[in-house]
Design brief:
Elements lengths: L1 E8 L5 E4 L10 H17 L6 E6 L2 E8 L2 E8 L4 H19 L16 H12 L4 H7 L10 E4 H5 L3 H56 L1
Parallel strand pairs: 3-6
Antiparallel strand pairs: 1-2, 1-5, 3-4, 4-5
Keywords: Coiled coil, Endoplasmic reticulum, Golgi apparatus, Membrane, Protein transport, Transmembrane, Transmembrane helix, Transport
GO cellular component, one term: Golgi membrane
GO molecular function: SNAP receptor activity
């Protein structure tokens, strides 16, 4: 199945769009997203890399195509047909170029085309079930061949050891920061509740005290 989808400008690695609902069921999804960003950066620094490649990482495979200075990448299960993965990317490429072509080079902020997620989700659904008549026909399409597309390991592409350690460290830092943010959010909510209800509690306390004193006197 298709797990992640990300689109970036090759010249500088700027992320342009991604599937917003992707990766929810993927363990260590942030690690894989950081690997994707490292791949984009690697492509920006190495303009002579192949325009189509599959990169194995753990139980998944990154498939990407580069066209018009844009990289379209998806992460799939290893068992997912390579042919369908690349046809999925071709569909994304054709629509992305048609809709956003003139603005791609001038985009200055990350995820400038985040609305493209709607098309990503709609197209992804078409490719999830490999046994539909539509996808079986695509698998049998002899005019679309992927046998010559190179497959490499993520360690070969990013560099053994050091770069992978950096990606892992970055992922761990992001996880730690998200936990700190969640703790701070809980503290702020708790403080807000205290500020909201403390005056009410004080009023009730005073009323109760006056009532108690009154009963003692009488």
């Amino acid at each position: 199945m298709v797990k992640l989808t990300m689109i970036a400008r090759v010249t500088d690695g700027l992320p342009l769009a991604e599937g917003l609902d992707d990766g929810r069921e993927v363990k260590d999804v942030e690690l894989y997203k950081q690997q994707v960003k490292a791949l984009f950066k690697n492509l920006a620094n190495r303009p002579n890399e192949p325009s189509r490649m599959s990169v194995e990482t753990g139980p998944y495979v990154f498939h990407y195509i580069i066209e018009g200075r844009v990289c379209y990448l998806t992460m799939c299960d290893r068992a997912y047909p390579k042919k369908l993965a690349f046809q999925y990317l071709e569909d994304l490429k054709n629509e992305f170029e048609r809709v956003n072509g003139p603005q791609i080079e001038t985009a200055a902020r990350p995820y400038a085309f985040i609305k493209f997620d709607t098309f990503i989700q709609r197209t992804k659904k078409l490719y999830q079930d490999t046994h539909t008549q539509r996808n079986i026909a695509k698998l049998n399409d002899e005019l679309y061949e992927v046998h010559q597309i190179m497959t490499r390991n993520v360690q070969e592409v990013l560099g053994v050891g050091e770069k992978l350690d950096q990606v892992s460290e970055m992922s761990s830092r992001l996880t730690s920061e998200s936990r700190i943010y969640a703790d701070k959010a809980r503290d702020l909510n708790r403080q807000a509740l205290i500020r909201k209800w403390a005056p009410v509690a004080i009023v009730f306390g005073v009323v109760f005290l006056l009532f108690w004193v009154k009963t003692k006197i009488w």
